[in-house]
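RESIDUES AND SHAPES:
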Amino acid sequence: MLAGAGSGKTRVLTYRVAYLSETLGISPSRILAVKFTNKAAAEMKERVFELTGSHNATPSIGTFHSCCLGILRREAHFLAQSEGFSIYDVEDQLAVVKEVMKDLSLSRELYHPRFLLEQIERAKDVLCTAQDYATHAQSESERITAAVFSKYEEKLKQYNAFDFGDLISETVRLCNNVPSVLKKYSSKFCHVLVDEYQDTNFAQYVLIKLLSGKYRNLCVVDDEDQSIYSWRGASIRNILEFERDFFDARVIKLEENYRSSGTILEAASRVSKTTRTERKRSSGQRIPRARRSL
């Protein structure tokens, strides 16, 4: 569904979830709805409850990270980390990067810890491993990042921890490497719904494709003019290539805005047109990686 701001995206998704469970009789446990924030997920759960009148009818609604965390916890016996692994936030991650830099005798005046961490995060957004990064590194900066990346991953395993990027990338690798896991979850979720699809990165795109691969009942809502997370790996290609990857998809446009006046909409439209072409041309910062494919 292509929908602009104020066109009722959340309402449409909520009513679709209620329709699937209440009218078609789909078990709520077999419906996965993905939002981008915990607040948005909680709001959607409440809206579904208001429509169905039962918390028992609430499907699996959560963020990408919370959904993946649940899978990794349940399937921990397949992972290098043990079942009681920790999740490192940004401050924890920075502490590990600084520890690695100290081990490698890298000056913080020449290489900023946050920059190195951002490079690692962007690599994980495109499912690039430390080994991939090292193989494709060309510049001196990339070779330094590759060395830090490799040691960083060793530290995480040593501390029995995952960072936020790992939650998605490790779930994708688990599904790709362990057929029984992919079969379990692609069979479990017969309907997958994704809000704010324009803000998905490559790893999230692959995860969605894997989980919806069996039944191909995938519903995504997006608006390329609202894409604001390219700085953290969101890729406009996920929208542009959707109909190629899902050739039998039906495109529905929600074109009526219920939030703003005509004057505001006209001004916003002019701004979007001037920036859309440049955004599509921009490929972002280069990340050395294996080819972008499954």
The chain is about 55% helix and 10% strand. The first strand starts at residue 2 and ends at 3. The chain has two domains: 2-73+168-281, 84-166.
